[in-house]
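Retro notes
What went well: the complex prediction finally ran end to end.
Inputs used:
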Amino acid sequence: MNFYKQVYKIVKTIPAGKVMTYGQIAGLISTPRAARTVGFALRASINYQDIPWHRVINSRGLISIINPQITKKIQAQLLNKEGVQIKIIGNNYYIDLKKYLYQP
DNA sequence: AAGGTGACTAACA
DNA sequence: ATGTTAGCCACCT
C-alpha cells in the first residue's frame, strides 16, 4: 500500500471538530519519523476534495501550512467552522491539542 | 542510481 | 523562552 494512501486513509478518519498531528499520523503508519513525508502527501492531497487536510497540524498545535493558495487563515477558518477554537498568537494560529487531538 | 527537498521533530545554544 | 541545527523518510528529477 502506498504511503500516500495510508495517510489519506487515516486523515479521512478524523472526525469534524478534531485534529491530528503529522508525527502522529506517521506513527500510525508505523514510520514515526516520516512526519515530513506526511506533510508532503497532504500537500498533494489538497487536489482531492474528500480529504480533510485542514485537520492536520504540527506537534505543537500550530498550523504550519506553507501554501500560497491555501493559507493559514483559510485553514483556521475551516477548523473554526467545525467547532475548533483557534487562538491567534501573532501571525500563528494555535489549537489546543489537549482538547481537540483525535486519538483512535 | 543518487542526491536534493520538504505542510516535521526533538535537541541545543 | 525564542532561534538554529541536525536527523528522518518518501517523492521527484
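What we learned: Helices of chain A lie at 3-12, 22-28, 35-45, 72-81, 97-100.
What to try next: split runs per interface for comparison.
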